[in-house]
Design brief:
This protein is mostly helical and 201 residues long. Helices cover 46% and strands 10% of the residues. It contains eight helices and three strands. A three-stranded antiparallel beta sheet has the order 2-1-3, with helices on both faces. Strand 1 and strand 2 form a beta hairpin. The mean pLDDT is 97. The structure holds manganese (II) ion (MN). Manganese (II) ion (MN) binds next to helix 1.
Length: 201
Amino acid sequence: MKKTMPVEGQFELMALPYAADALEPVISANTLGFHHGKHLQAYVNNLNAALPGSGLEGMPLEDVVMHAQGGMLNNAGQILNHNLYFAQFMPPKADNAPTGRLAKAIDSAFGSFEDFQEVFAEAGIKLFGSGWVWLSADAEGHLKITQEPNASNPILHGLRPLMTMDVWEHAYYLDYQNRRPAHLDALWQIINWNEVASRYE
Ligand code: MN
């Protein structure tokens, strides 16, 4: 996993690899503006404010997540989660599905891509409160689905995070209100499986 380094002691808001309206109608420009420009920016600001004197200055973001506690862990974890989340999207595509080695690993772990989608969505729907559902790989490359509460990330359990869906209400409430299942179902259209596969290499 490529590590995210601070620049002169400060972490930066990640640049989106697509235009603000590129994910419509799955994620509106309005939701993206709040989610990336306000929520993620606030986590970045909060972590940067907490770093001086913490003993974690200068560390890569991933190492801060492994070593921080309390509010620092929450903000660092949310930056890592959102960086991976926003980087994994592309404009909507019909019949969007993984290919190659990752597709084979999904078939082997879950039976088929459709079976994987069902189990993954169920994990997202049933996650109570705020959190994230993840597809990750263990040290042997075996795939796992985990539910992570609040700001947690699979690296805290020794897993390599590959793909995620954010089930905090701020991720979908402007576009879908309470309809979390409809939001999660729509997200399959915008997963950039080439980006996800590159995390599995
Ligand atoms: Mn979020």
